[in-house]
Amino acid sequence: MSFLQDILNVILPPRCAVCGEVLSIDKGICDKCIEDIDFLSDSICYRCGQPHSSFIDKKGHKICGNCLAHPRRLFRFSRSACSYDSIAQKLILNLKFHDRTDLASVLAKMMYVAGKDIFASGVDVIIPVPLHYTRILKRKYNQSALLAKELGRLTGIKVCYDVLTKSRMTRPQVECSGFERLNNVKGAFLLKNSEKIKGKRVLLIDDVLTTGSTIKECALAIKKAHPKSIDNLTIARVV
Q: Model pTM?
């Protein structure tokens, strides 16, 4: 298999998913494009992951004004690896729509680093945001499930694919305004096999956090199973 892969790499050399540069090692992204990614690591809110947070809570953590004013939130922690800029957009679109499933591995590693607070605080089960079955038939795979699978390999944490299901077809969120996004996914996710997450620390996985409508609806469905906590982790977020 290694010999055949070497031949294939000569005929069709691996290229960077962002700039198209030929790669000597098939790692999905070239070093230059990795350096240009806007990673979210400094000055983020300890709770929701919002960048440019400058308030300090009673425990000395950086926190945003919203979390300071509303300490009781649906999620224990929210984290994203990078901001949703042109580079992140290219990577995510290639993963979702252009069969670059190989990118799931490198993107999951970025998410693993970004989610260090979450994993340090404890996670019992990882759940990907589900797609409606008609969309899976069209796309052939769920990108969030691929990311969850890779994170499961990195951490040894169990991944559950049968806890959440999308019960109805919705418009793509990218086609909706902020208010429309809320109504578009409202009640679209159903809880199954609730015994698998009762009393557990649950981590939700998705690709992009925009308004948070989708991941919030997933969390509201999961909450019915009375988990110990719910976190969310994405590749990118709109800043």
A: 0.91
